[in-house]
Amino acid sequence: MNDRLYKLSRTSPESTDLAQTAQEMASTTRRDFLKTLGTACVAIAIAPVAEKLSVAEAAKTENTPAERDWSKHKWGMAIDVEKCIGCGHCVVACKEENGVPKEPFYFRTWIERYQQFGDETVVDSPNGGYDGFPPETERAERLDKAFFVPKLCNACEHSPCVQVCPVGATFETPDGAVLVDPDYCIGCRYCIQACPYGTRFLNPITGVADKCTLCYHRIHNGQQPACVENCPTGARLFGDLKDQDGPLNQFLREHKIHVLKPHLNTYPKVFYSGIDKEVR
Ligand code: SF4
Ligand code: SF4
């Protein structure tokens, strides 16, 4: 496990790397083999073999730190909806940082706009908020309330995506992120269907499941996730839930906090302040 975590914490998924990875993957017979077999139960039986191969490969190429304590932290994020202005800088920064395809519909994070006209709530997210939001003109005089809600992987403590992955490619790290190991993923899309928050997509370049990693490669380098660093209003706060006196726990103590779809018992580690029941 440590080797796998170390490998993923050092992988910067820039576009060029993705293209290279895609080529490497194209020549990987293991995935072709699994796809040909085509049944989840056979894939489950093969998973332990895949794990041994991947760990061995990682051990060969990395200076694995013997004593890194991956369970020392529990990463999470708070989002202060009252501060979000829907500028989309976070969406742009995320795409740049993580080599997310520029085309619409591929997002690791995106912004939704909620507009209330009397009893009617209208939600839109043109190009995921990448270009910001055009002002409402036609119904402006009827607008009661509007706010922006940034979305991303909720880093669920009980994550449906992890539960359904037939080959162990999607897994939760001891420090609270949920990651996809591209060396394992067979592109079956089970996790994409299982995520109740719609945060996953099949990357058209790599052919594997993709989603927010909390910028795992950055946070293990002492940096903030790209979306947090580029938010001009401080609407996103990244931190360590195990640091009781840290800024994240302080924020959680001082604000009324909601998580998305709490009835599903996924126990998200992305916390929202300033949302109400309209947000789903
Ligand atoms: S939000 Fe979706 S992708 Fe993220 S951990 Fe939860 S189920 Fe998995
Ligand atoms: S950068 Fe900050 S303010 Fe702008 S849309 Fe993203 S979260 Fe909202």
Tag the structure with descriptive keywords:
31% helix; alpha+beta; 10 helices; binds iron/sulfur cluster; 280 residues
Short structural description:
By secondary structure, this protein is α+β, with helices and mostly antiparallel strands.
What does this structure look like?
- By secondary structure, the chain is α+β, with helices and mostly antiparallel strands.
- It has ten helices and eleven strands.
- The strands form four sheets. Strands 9-1-11-10 form a four-stranded mixed beta sheet, with helices on one face. A three-stranded antiparallel beta sheet has the order 3-2-4, covered by helices on one side. It has a two-stranded antiparallel sheet with strand order 5-6.
- Helix content is 31%, strand content 18%.
- The protein has helices at 2-9, 15-26, 29-37, 40-61, 89-98, 160-164, 190-194, 216-219, 226-230, 247-254, and strands spanning 75-80, 109-117, 120-124, 145-152, 170-172, 178-180, 201-202, 209-210, 236-240, 257-258, 270-273.
- The longest helix is centred in the N-terminal third of the chain and has 22 residues, at 40-61.
- The chain is globular, with a radius of gyration of 19 Å.
- One iron/sulfur cluster (SF4) is lined by residues 153-156, 159-161, 178, 195, 197, 199-200, 211, 266.
